[in-house]
Amino acid sequence: MGNYGLVYHIHARITNTGTHTRHVSLNITAPLDCGVEMAYACGSSNPVWKPLVLNTVDPFEYCGVNVGSKQVMRLDAAYALGGPACGNLFHSFSITV
User: Fold this and answer.
1) Is the dihedral of CA 14, 19, 23, 25 positive or negative?
2) Sign (positive or negative) of CA dihedral 1, 84, 50, 14
3) pLDDT in tens, 53-85
4) DSSP type of residue 59
């Protein structure tokens, strides 16, 4: 079996110990000229699945949350690759003010 048809789940607990609200995003990036077909969902209660054709090398934020100062938030996300996919997907978290 290839890397398609599987559902990937990401669960994170994020603590902001700073004094400013931060935006935390979960990103996915595909290789150049790949055209990955996927579906993604964000949220812990009744997430809505959305279709996507990822055909850019720029990171795509598929789940994000604003975390206030001294707060703890939960980030739940899932994605499924349509098949066949090119593989070699890069996952990243980013934090912005």
Assistant:
1) negative
2) positive
3) 887 778 889 999 999 999 999 989 998 877 666
4) -
Residue written as tokens 């935390």? 24
First to last CA, the chain: 41
Q: What's the predicted TM-score (pTM) here?
A: 0.80
Contacts of 52 (CB under 8 A, 6+ apart): 37, 38, 39, 40, 60, 62
Name which of 16, 24, 14, 23 is nearest 69 in CA terms.
Answer: 16
Can you read off the two tokens belonging to residue 23?
Answer: 């935006």
Q: Are 14 and 76 in contact (CB under 8 A)?
A: no
Contact yes or no for 75/1 (Cβ under 8 A): no
| CA 38/CA 32 separation, integer angstroms | 16
Structural tokens at position 49? 């699945």
